[in-house]
């Protein structure tokens, strides 16, 4: 998700690539000389806000009215261009070699806790900060050169463009350090940035922020038009996005350049000119041709006056010439066309989403022999189906899931109610309303965040000596690892505390409490006799049912031979998750002993039909375990650091 201003904290502006104007567009060129911006990702502009090109949180800007603006206000450094895996400990090891570090904070997303790619390092004195800036700037951290500058928290200073220089047509080999070395001869550089894409490849333009206007003017005078790595570069004063947008809107309202398409490929330049001459004076005209000197069916006409261009568009657009309907409109730059196409795509996407909202079903756990026709037949009893599709791989083999789309939400809801967990070809179906991947990921991240927060509250409560007990109809308590503990109730209507009035309540992250060697028995299952006991035996049980630590880690309860959907149906609904957890735990324990409880709790958020599938298919269970491990490791690495 582009991240919000709150998360990025006014990080470096994703400025736009500037393209030189053609002879046809000459009259529309901006006075600033920076040209128009060609935006590849409009979301970057929205996220970064209207800040100076090189104006990151570490950027300070000078002003003639405020000569001290470039002076750092504290011994705080901004460190950017960081790999997402960089932690506070790594930065401490690097910066502490310069001098005592007061605190370090890697900025992270408020929800996902993922690194935003920048951090703040606070020293005790300005001398150490200045030394770190001089010696560590562009040092490789996890294979990436970091970018260091003084932190400037005042947004008004960050947004001032005084002394900010824009450079375009850069060779891809020029990085931040090379750009810094090139321009450092003209004065003190506060910030230096080469714009890159998602793959860290140069976009061909960058920004250098000097501490004075004189330094910026000297750089423009000496470098503009020079060859850098055999490429002629353009250097000019940075024009803020607001100014560019204002000029751009003014240019759109007074356009003179007209684009014409769907022309007859046999048309001549004279015929093309004669078509537009009646509307007014033409300053330039271009009929685009191919390598064989044949017209490609489109061209440009630039009028001397806006009124003439507007009249030509109004009268010639949609007119038929030589059997072809012409398109005549204002000539657009590439970024405008891309933005318009992107808006249309998003609009169509949203319309499609709204159209299928609540009527499109996701069906999982399909047998390989189930095809589109059978899927449609199985669901046709609940309403009119507009489409039914089983997803397949490159070889045409079923992936085990598909989609069914109805005409009304009522039909879809009825199908979910009737078909979810119904047996089809020997396997219980999972049927639910289809969700987009981004929605599912957001929900998962929210669940993990909520669990982590609740676990933290439990740890704080435990440290304060508050027993983790809920009374009445409150929410379920969570066991070690953050997984629900069913509230056991004694004869007086109060929950039982481990070690008081009865055995410890079970939860699906802990081995079930059964006599040594005896497996649990569920409705519909034949009881099994005592199983062989390992040399170490089962965990010795203390009063209250709590296993001794020495034996608890090696305890793996016996598994029933088979647990079917019919067996689960015989279990009261409120106990099904506990039963499934007790069945899953031993399987997970054999794979991941230390994290078995956490993984079991995570998997229990799935539908019962999916859990039954995991009990039967070891490959599917192994895949889910891997997914859970990835999530656990990711969030363990990104645990938020407190203020130092």
UniProtKB/TrEMBL annotation:
InterPro entries documented for this protein: Nucleotide-bd_a/b_plait_sf, PABP-dom, PABP_1234, PABP_HYD_C, PABP_RRM1, RBD_domain_sf, RRM2_I_PABPs, RRM_dom
Domain of life according to the entry: Eukaryota
PROSITE patterns associated with the record: PABC, RRM
Region annotation (Disordered) ranges: 1-75
Role, per record: Binds the poly(A) tail of mRNA. Appears to be an important mediator of the multiple roles of the poly(A) tail in mRNA biogenesis, stability and translation. In the nucleus, involved in both mRNA cleavage and polyadenylation. Is also required for efficient mRNA export to the cytoplasm. Acts in concert with a poly(A)-specific nuclease (PAN) to affect poly(A) tail shortening, which may occur concomitantly with either nucleocytoplasmic mRNA transport or translational initiation.
Xref: CDD domains: RRM1_I_PABPs, RRM2_I_PABPs, RRM3_I_PABPs, RRM4_I_PABPs
GO CC aspect terms: cytoplasmic stress granule; nucleus
Main location: cytoplasm
Keywords attached to this entry: Cytoplasm, mRNA processing, mRNA transport, Nucleus, Repeat, RNA-binding, Translation regulation, Transport
Ranges of Low complexity composition bias in the record: 53-75
UniProt-recorded name of the protein: Polyadenylate-binding protein
NCBIfam families: PABP-1234
Pfam name, any one: RRM_1
GO molecular function: RNA binding
Segments traversing the membrane: none
SUPFAM superfamilies with a match to the protein in the record: PABC (PABP) domain, RNA-binding domain, RBD
Domain PABC intervals: 560-637
Domain RRM: 75-153, 163-240, 256-333, 359-436
Compositionally biased intervals (Polar residues): 19-32
Upper lineage: Eukaryota, Fungi, Dikarya, Ascomycota, Taphrinomycotina
Subcellular localization, as worded in the UniProt entry: Cytoplasm; Nucleus
Family: Belongs to the polyadenylate-binding protein type-1 family.
BP GO terms, sorted: mRNA processing; mRNA transport; regulation of translation
């Amino acid at each position: 998700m582009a991240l919000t201003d709150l998360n990025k904290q006014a990080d470096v502006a994703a400025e736009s690539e500037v393209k030189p104007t053609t002879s046809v567009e000459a009259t529309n060129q901006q006075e600033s000389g920076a040209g128009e911006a060609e935006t590849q990702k409009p979301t970057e502009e929205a996220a970064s806000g209207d800040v100076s090109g090189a104006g990151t949180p570490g950027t300070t800007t000078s002003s003639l009215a405020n000569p001290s603006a470039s002076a750092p206000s504290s011994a705080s450094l901004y460190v950017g261009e960081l790999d997402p895996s960089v932690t506070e400990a790594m930065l401490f090891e690097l910066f502490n070699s310069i001098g005592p570090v007061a605190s370090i904070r890697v900025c992270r997303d408020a929800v996902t806790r993922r690194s935003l790619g920048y951090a703040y390092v606070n020293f005790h004195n300005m001398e150490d900060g200045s030394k770190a800036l001089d010696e560590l700037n562009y040092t490789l951290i996890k294979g990436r050169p970091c970018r260091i500058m003084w932190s400037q928290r005042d947004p008004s200073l960050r947004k001032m463009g005084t002394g900010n220089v824009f450079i375009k047509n850069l060779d891809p080999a020029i990085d931040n350090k090379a750009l810094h070395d090139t321009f450092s001869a003209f004065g003190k550089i506060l910030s230096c940035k080469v714009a890159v894409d998602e793959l860290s490849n140069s976009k061909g333009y960058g920004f250098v922020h000097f501490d004075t206007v004189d330094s910026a003017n000297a750089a423009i005078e000496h470098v503009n038009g020079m060859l850098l790595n055999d490429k002629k570069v353009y250097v000019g004063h940075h024009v803020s996005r607001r100014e560019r947008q204002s000029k751009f809107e003014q240019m759109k309202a007074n356009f003179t350049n007209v684009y014409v398409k769907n022309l007859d490929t046999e048309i001549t330049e004279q015929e093309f000119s004669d078509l537009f001459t009646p509307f007014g004076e033409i300053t330039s005209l271009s009929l685009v041709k191919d390598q064989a000197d044949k017209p490609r069916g489109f061209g440009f006409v630039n009028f001397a006056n806006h009124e003439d261009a507007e009249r030509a568009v109004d009268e010639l657009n949609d007119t038929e010439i030589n059997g072809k309907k012409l398109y005549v409109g204002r000539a657009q730059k590439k970024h405008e066309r891309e933005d318009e196409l992107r808006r249309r795509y998003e609009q169509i996407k949203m319309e499609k989403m709204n159209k299928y909202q609540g009527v499109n079903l996701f069906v999982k756990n399909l047998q390989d022999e189930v095809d589109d026709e059978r899927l449609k037949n199985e669901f046709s009893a609940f309403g009119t189906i507009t489409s039914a599709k089983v997803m397949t791989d490159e070889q045409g083999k079923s992936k085990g899931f598909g989609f069914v789309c109805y005409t009304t939400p009522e039909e879809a809801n009825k199908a979910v109610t009737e078909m979810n967990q119904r047996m089809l070809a020997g396997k219980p179906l999972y049927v639910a309303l289809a969700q987009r991947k981004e929605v599912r990921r957001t929900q998962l991240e929210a669940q993990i965040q909520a669990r982590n927060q609740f676990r933290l509250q439990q740890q704080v409560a435990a440290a304060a000596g508050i027993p983790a007990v809920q009374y009445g109809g409150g929410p379920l308590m969570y066991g070690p690892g953050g997984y629900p503990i069913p509230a056991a109730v004694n004869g007086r209507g109060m929950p039982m505390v481990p070690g008081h009035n009865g055995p410890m309540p079970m939860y699906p992250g802990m081995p079930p409490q059964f006599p040594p060697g005896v497996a649990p028995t569920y409705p519909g299952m034949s009881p099994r006799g005592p199983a062989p006991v390992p040399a170490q035996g089962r965990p010795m049980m203390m009063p209250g049912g709590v296993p001794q630590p020495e034996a608890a880690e090696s305890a793996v309860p016996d598994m029933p031979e088979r647990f079917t959907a019919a067996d689960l149906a015989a279990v009261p609904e409120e106990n099904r998750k506990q039963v499934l957890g007790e069945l899953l735990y031993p399987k997970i324990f054999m794979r991941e002993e230390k994290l078995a409880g956490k993984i079991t709790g995570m998997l229990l958020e799935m539908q019962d039909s999916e859990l039954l599938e995991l009990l039967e298919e070891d490959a599917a269970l192994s895949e889910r375990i891997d997914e859970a491990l990835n999530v656990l490791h990711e969030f363990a690495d990104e645990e938020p650091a407190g203020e130092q």
